[in-house]
Amino acid sequence: MAIVEAVVLAVIVETMVLAMITEVLVLVAIAEVVVIVEAVVLAVSVKVVDLAVIAEAMVLSAITQSI
């Protein structure tokens, strides 16, 4: 019986280790996706700021031309 119990314990431990590894991999994948999303958001916000600056410059040049 001791051998059977040892085998069962080994299988349980192995399953737990595999589950932990899988969890870590999933967390890493989620973190990567979050980083990608953050990068995209940053890029978009930078573009929006660029557009705002361009629009501001155009308005300023229009004002200075009308004076």
Describe the structure.
- It is a single chain.
- This protein has one helix spanning 2-66.
- The protein is mostly helical and 67 residues long.
- The longest helix has 65 residues, at 2-66.
- The termini are far apart.
Helix content: over 70%
Give the biggest beta sheet.
none
Terminal CA distance reads 98 Å
Which descriptor suits the 3D outline?
Answer: rod-shaped
| Contiguous uncertain segments of 5+ residues | none
The residue-averaged pLDDT reads 92
Radius of gyration over alpha carbons?
29 Å
DSSP summary, beta strand count: 0
Supply the number of helical segments. 1
What proportion of the residues form beta strands (DSSP E)? under 5%
The string of secondary-structure elements, in order, is: H
Give the helix/strand class. mainly alpha
Keywords: Membrane, Transmembrane, Transmembrane helix
Transmembrane segments: 7-30, 36-63
Can you give keywords for this protein?
transmembrane; 0% strand; transmembrane helix; membrane; rod-shaped; mainly alpha; 67 residues
